User: Fold this.
Amino acid sequence: MLSQLLADHAALHRALGFKFRTPGILLRNFVAFAEHRGEHVITTATVHEWALQAPSPEQRRNRLLAVRRFALALHAEDPRHEVPSADLFGRASRRRRTPYIYSPGEIRRLIDAAHRLGPDDTIRPLSYATMFGLIAATAQIKFKKSRMLPLHPTTRRALDGYLATRLKAASQSDALFISHQGTPLAYPTVISVFLQIMRSIGLRGAPGSRGPRIHDLRHTFAVRSLERCAHDSQAVARHITALSTYLGHAHVTDTYWYLQSTPELMAHMSTAGETLHRGVTA
Assistant:
């Protein structure tokens, strides 16, 4: 019975556009575990026992939350299904790190400092300056995905300028961004150079201290994009869908993770709230 309920649950999610891969794997594992015990409804005790078999606290919590969402859907139609508490293993210890939203001036300083990198008369400074600028202008992709994006004319001009130099560089690599030795830029090296630059322009403290990250450029892109249409609620609704696609997200809810309050957004929200309070549609 649980197998059929899971099949229906998965079919509904896929019909709504969800891939349902990881949850599907977890839930099939749980259903097999429960049915092996002769159970036809979800019980908190069985969820607890099954989730405890995971090798780490994070994976135990992932198992718990996957089954909990399934149980909530089933409980709505059949109260015999128990819904385990989200805090069955205690509260999650991981908290979202507050992203740093760069100002346009700070991004400019980052790019300018990259241009000043050595060695002189090599492609290295231009590689880093163009790469950081491209990340800021498009928001870098995650998980090795690929995507096709429209580019702002200023971004295209900067990229064309870099390509003109790149095509003349002596290199056996087909990587877009290369070092002065002609080798692809390694991720640890990029991080090290980024931190060096950020300290040189005063945006990070001593080694070991926290501060703005490269990934925060992605958050900044999302927030600044939304600021452009924050005065129009209908435009925001359209824009958030386009932004989600641009960022390469499978679900629009993933995009909400990247949004952060800024003075400009808060001002627009305050104005919209006052307008709504007066009974006028925002």
